[in-house]
Amino acid sequence: MPRVAKVKGAAVAAGGGAKKKSKLYKMPEKIQEGTILLDTSKIKWKIGPSIGTGGFGEIYTACKQDEKNYDYVVKCEPHDNGPLFVEMHYYMRNTKLSDINNFKREKGLKNLGVPHMLGHGSVEVNNKKHRFIILPRYGSDINKLFLSNSRCLPEITVYRIVLQMLDAYEFIHRFGYVHADLKAANILLGNGKGGGEQTYLVDYGLASHYTTKDFKPDPKKMHNGTIQYTSRDAHQGVPTRRGDFEIMGYNIIEWLGVELPWVKEKILAAPVKVQKAKEAFMANVSMELKKLFPQGTPPTVEEFMNYVAQMKYNDEPDYEKCRNIFKSYLKAIKATISGDLDFKLKKAVLSGPTTSTAIKSNAKTKANIKKAQLLLKNKESDDNKIVDSSSPTPSRPVKSTAKSKVNVTKENLLSDSEENDDDEVISASDEDDVFESKRFKKNQSFKNLSPGRKLLQKKIAASKIISPLNRTKSSDIVTPISKTLSQKIASLASTSAETNKKRSPAVLNAKAHIKLSPHIKMTPSGSGSTVINNHITPNKKTGKTYEINFELDVSMDANVLVNVKRKKKPVTISQDQSDASGANDEYSTPVKRVKVRKAEEDENNRSPRTPYVTVKKSKRLIQSPKSGRP
Ligand SMILES: Nc1ncnc2c1ncn2[C@@H]1O[C@H](COP(=O)(O)OP(=O)(O)OP(=O)(O)O)[C@@H](O)[C@H]1O
């Protein structure tokens, strides 16, 4: 029996059109830690702890049989699931380590944010055939950090990620493919030393050949992608490079803390409506951007989106021009573009004007941008001269003509004889499944996201925090950063604690939701309403450090060390009121100083993961300064 079965191919009625018929979609069987997988090259991989589940598969850490460090991941799905099949074939054809290294050399890059596959194969788990691929292990995905920041990233960080993703795009497009699903959840930070500086674009389950010939809408692929970001071309079922750029544009807008119009209008369940909204948006992009950024559209965003809006469907993107849009801005504001990416928002972000706005109105900085643009242009032409001498067409794709001429169809994917598959035979119905399932999966993904957004919106409404909609900027200039990723995650947590302190009483009164596993009983502590897991820490003591698995509903999911300290605060509630409201001394100590830091990632010394624990704040604790009401 499959562990979980999901309905596939239903649910989304394209703009009120006929619903597609339902199919069942399987989740993989659980693989036990320590299991050895043999790939097609006879390399043995040992399964470590699971690090997450995607839409339809599970990701485990892994190491080579004789090694100790779990530096790899295994992505495993039932054999007849489509996305992993597509992803594996994409990796097999296009991401050879030698190609990645050549591209890095050619572009003078220290790193390139595309993974390479280390192995693949098939395995029987509980008598069910599964497919697996082995990839390098990366760090946190950007979406977690985005959500921890109340759906906003520092502007400089956004542009640095964009620059890295433009490199990744250029590499992917060079082989005749588009990624078609760029989003924060598919961008991972690196792992280990220097990992915080580089991001990697993962999940190639939707990768396909792009169109260079006729623009033929394909009903079978219409609306493929993650609905918020799906490009206008993808809405018509046509994979294009301009589509990839458009997807990136929508993400940039969102990362800067602005809600996309079709998200705001809550029409994500109607793909055709979303498609129309995007057509209208892109037809008048400067005006539409003004509505989203009332305090001034960041010039980078305006230039990039205008560039995308004027592209033809079969245009080869001008990667260098786009890079320069962001590079010149970063240069003009003298931003540091090396070192770890900074995910900490400056406090000014919550209330002040945008950096971009400030810059826009500042003639001197404008002049600086121009100067930087000019410099970069000159440098570019110099670079081209240098490359020209060694390569006849360095900036042109070097894909084989055979590939470049092929339109993306499942038949193309399957009939390619160059591949070195693990002797799998895929039937015609499997092929249909491959594409149908991924399509459904992506169409469904907005459904997965919306509860989180709803929860966040509720919290924002409850807490009177400035909504991301009103927030039109990200951070000020970033100073050089030498922090490690774990320190950064810790500082994120403390920033949010800081922010909480400064919020209105309504914020402090906001009640967090507790998610508990059934076999863990939580009991309120004597004072306040912090709850401690008595079964794991029977003699709870202040000043002690406990390691727990901590899931904030802003999606920071990690094993963390929580150092609990409680400080008594002077009682500010009168006895009468106290009596009337039922409050007493015991409940008048609302401030909990909780220090959270990420536990060491050392797999061998890691304490066992415990179920979800969340700290609660009681409504009764805080007194409104004017009314005296709690
Ligand atoms: N190489 C990797 N190293 C570390 N974590 C990874 C790696 N690849 C994926 N993950 C994590 O595993 C989870 C799922 O990954 P992925 O998106 O590839 O799966 P999927 O089944 O295609 O999911 P989706 O529903 O987003 O399409 C994500 O949380 C991601 O952060």
Spatial order of the strands forming the largest sheet: 3-4-5-6-8-7
CATH architecture of one domain: Orthogonal Bundle
Query: What molecules are bound to this protein?
Result: adenosine-5'-triphosphate
How does the overall form come out from the CA principal axes? globular
Distance between the termini: 52 Å
Can you identify the CATH class of one domain? Answer: Mainly Alpha
Query: Mean pLDDT, rounded to whole units?
Result: 68
Count the strands? 18
Structural class: alpha+beta
Query: Could you state the CATH homologous superfamily of one domain?
Result: Transferase(Phosphotransferase) domain 1
- Share of helical residues: 25-40%
CA-atom Rg in angstroms? 26 Å
Q: Please work out how many helical segments DSSP would assign.
A: 19
Q: Do you know the CATH topology of one domain?
A: Transferase(Phosphotransferase), domain 1
Strand content: 5-15%
Describe this structure in words.
The protein has helices at 82-94, 97-107, 142-148, 155-174, 232-235, 241-255, 261-264, 271-283, 285-292, 299-310, 319-332, 355-360, 363-390, 401-405, 410-415, 428-463, 485-502, 505-509, 575-581, and strands at residues 5-8, 23-26, 36-38, 44-53, 58-64, 72-78, 119-125, 128-136, 177-178, 187-189, 199-201, 208-209, 523-524, 531-532, 545-552, 556-566, 592-598, 612-613. Helix 4 runs antiparallel to helix 6 and helix 6 (241-255) runs antiparallel to helix 10 (299-310). The protein starts with a strand and ends in a 17-residue tail after the last strand. The model is unreliable at 1-25, 349-362, 382-540, 548-560, 572-595 and 598-630 (pLDDT under 50). The radius of gyration is 26 Å and the shape is globular. Among the domains are: 35-136, Phosphorylase Kinase, domain 1; 140-333, Transferase(Phosphotransferase) domain 1 (Transferase(Phosphotransferase), domain 1, Orthogonal Bundle). The longest helix is centred in the C-terminal third of the chain and has 36 residues, at 428-463. Helices cover 37% and strands 15% of the residues. The chain is an alpha+beta fold and 630 residues long. The strands form six sheets. The protein has a six-stranded antiparallel beta sheet, covered by helices on one side. A four-stranded mixed beta sheet has the order 17-16-15-18. The protein has a two-stranded antiparallel sheet with strand order 1-2. It binds adenosine-5'-triphosphate. Residues 416-425 have a biased composition (Acidic residues).
